[in-house]
């Protein structure tokens, strides 16, 4: 990794060149075994690639310059496939490493590693470091962000394993960590405490999916501790309507928290979890254009300044994505 630069699918770029950034998105979400043995009827790889190319070109026309693809293992990551898209579009794509599980890992991770049946080094640490320092799956594309998950089950033993490995990879590389949190149980607190105890500075963390919460005290607590909160599910109105998400952002901006929030959608061009037909029928605005077309105008009507919009969508992502100095 080049010091001070951010890795993208097309190589390292200066943080100042990231521009307007959607920091929590997905190009495609799948499941390798299901995709092989029980293909989704709406999935066609060539058509999906064309959809993504057209969609990313529209984003460029709307002023978006960078999209962080947080599709990691457990979500059907295929960096070689996404690279075919990255080579054709103007928008910069950032790849991620990590493991998406809310509870258990595959059995392999329980038999391999220090003190386990087969022994050897921790394969999760090896995986995350290789993805960041060498490249993902022999593509040469290096990861620019680490992703971990705690959901309703909390920090299970396997989730703890993922988080420990992510903390180690962060300390060795300086790549930032973003999370999937469970807002109803306010477990962003547990994530923050876990990582701080393991040498991760709070300002290198994004506690994701905080936009699902309207608990201002909880959100202030995370930001006052130094973390950035992800207001990153605009368009997911089946979870929380956008007008309430927007009201929360407006309230926190009025209190001076512009430097500790980021905006995004957690959208995808295809997801077998919530496929295109379902999204079109139930959440028609859940796409990567929604913030540019509807949310930013709503924020401006609510009294937000252009400088604050720049902070949320340009300055904060650039600060977060810039690797910090390794500490070990």
Automatic annotation (TrEMBL):
Alphabetical list of InterPro entries matching this protein: AryldialkylPase_Zn-BS, Metal_Hydrolase, Phosphotriesterase
Family annotation (Pfam families): PTE
Residues annotated as transmembrane: none
N6-carboxylysine, modified sites: 147
Keywords, ordered alphabetically: Hydrolase, Metal-binding
Family: Belongs to the metallo-dependent hydrolases superfamily. Phosphotriesterase family.
PANTHER family: PHOSPHOTRIESTERASE-RELATED, PHOSPHOTRIESTERASE-RELATED PROTEIN
Protein known as: Phosphotriesterase
């Amino acid at each position: 990794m080049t010091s001070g630069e951010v890795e993208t699918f097309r190589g390292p770029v200066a943080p100042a060149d990231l521009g307007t950034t959607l920091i929590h998105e997905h190009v495609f979400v799948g499941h390798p075994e299901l995709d092989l043995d029980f293909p989704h009827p709406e999935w066609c790889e060539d058509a999906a690639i064309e959809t993504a190319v057209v969609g990313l070109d529209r984003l460029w026309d709307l002023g978006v310059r960078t999209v962080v693809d947080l599709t990691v293992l457990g979500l059907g990551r295929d960096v070689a496939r996404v690279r075919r898209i990255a080579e054709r579009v103007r928008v910069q794509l950032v790849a991620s490493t990590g493991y998406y599980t809310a509870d258990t890992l595959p059995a392999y991770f329980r038999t391999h590693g220090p003190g386990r049946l087969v022994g050897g080094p921790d394969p999760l640490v090896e995986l995350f470091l290789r993805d960041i320092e060498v490249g993902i799956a022999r593509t040469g594309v290096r990861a620019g962000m680490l992703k971990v998950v705690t959901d309703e089950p909390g920090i299970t033993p396997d989730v703890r394993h993922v988080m420990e490995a992510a903390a180690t990879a962060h300390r060795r590389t300086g790549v930032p960590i973003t999370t999937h949190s469970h807002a109803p149980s306010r477990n962003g607190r547990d994530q923050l405490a876990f990582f701080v105890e393991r040498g991760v500075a709070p300002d290198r963390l994004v506690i994701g999916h905080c936009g699902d919460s309207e608990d201002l005290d909880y959100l202030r607590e995370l930001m006052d501790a130094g973390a950035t909160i992800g207001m990153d599910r605009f368009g997911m109105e089946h979870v929380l309507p956008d007008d309430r998400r927007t009201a929360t952002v407006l309230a926190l901006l009025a209190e001076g928290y512009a430097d500790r929030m980021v905006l995004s959608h957690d959208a995808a061009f295809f997801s077998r979890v919530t496929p295109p037909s379902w999204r079109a029928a139930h959440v028609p605005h859940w796409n990567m254009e929604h913030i540019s077309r509807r949310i930013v105008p709503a924020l401006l009507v609510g009294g937000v300044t252009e400088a604050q919009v720049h902070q949320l969508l340009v300055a904060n992502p650039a600060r977060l994505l810039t690797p910090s100095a390794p500490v070990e």
